[in-house]
Amino acid sequence: MKVKEVAELIGISVRTLHHYDEIGLLSPKRKAESGYREYTDEDLETLQQILFFRELGFPLKKIKDVLNSPSFDRQEALLLQKKMLLEKRSRLDQMILLIERTIQHAEGEIQMTNKEKFEGFDFSQNPYEKEARERWGNKAVDRSNAKLAGMSGEEQEAMTEKMNAIYRKLAALRKEAPSSDEAHSAIKEWYDFLNDNFGSYSFEAFKGLGQMYVSDERFTKNIDQFGEGLAKFMCEAMAAFADKKEIERRSDLGD
């Protein structure tokens, strides 16, 4: 099947398939006589795997690593994906039930205690924190230190000043809504700065890092030197930025 046929079959954009090809995630072979890329049944099975992982919130880089792993087993992956989707459905069912009971409470049909109003929520785990901690753990620190060691004093000073300038810009906006256009633009500068200097970070990891700014007092103390409440503002702005990018991703996939 040609790329346009695959896009129409699945309901995603040709641009998305081209992007998967460009980053080496899914690259069908070119047919010698026509020069067009053609998707085999095996390619479509791989694409199905990619879309399952995307539905579960996996970043493209992580999906590529998983699919390229010598130990990757398609059947095992399907069973794991089923388990994760069932867990996701269970959480959604709980939230739907909570909403239905809340509607009944609002209409006077039942009475809910304050505790019952929040029984469907679970904040015991941050699904993005593990990836963020992995990316910002000892290996990430070692990489950043190695990069800094290879810079001249002037280069280090310039990078530090650029980082501080972004902090100051965000501090000046911390009284604004974290989802405002100004906040979005400024927090994108922070996202780009991290990616340019300390590796490649998914939107999920970026969101998780923002959570660490408020959950880890060391982050909070350092960031709030530029203005009280900045860590909280950055956490919320990073979450808004990541959520917006996720909506854009789903739109590209035709969701």
In brief:
The chain is mainly alpha-helical. It is built from 12 helices and no strands.
Element string (H = helix, E = strand) = HHHHHHHHHHHH
Task: Give the CATH architecture of the largest domain.
Answer: Orthogonal Bundle
Radius of gyration in whole Å, from Cα? 22 Å
Task: Give the helix level as a range of percent.
Answer: 55-70%
Spatial shape: flat
Total strands: the figure is 0
CATH class of the largest domain: Mainly Alpha
Quote the distance from N terminus to C terminus.
Answer: 22 Å
| Mean pLDDT over the residues | 82
Total domains: 3
**Are there runs of 5+ residues with pLDDT below 50, and where?**
none
Strand count, sense and barrel status of the largest sheet are: none
CATH topology of the largest domain: Globin-like
Task: Specify the structural class.
Answer: mainly alpha
**What share of the residues does DSSP label as strand, in percent?**
under 5%
Tally of DSSP helical segments: 12
What is the CATH H-level superfamily of the largest domain? Antibiotic binding domain of TipA-like multidrug resistance regulators
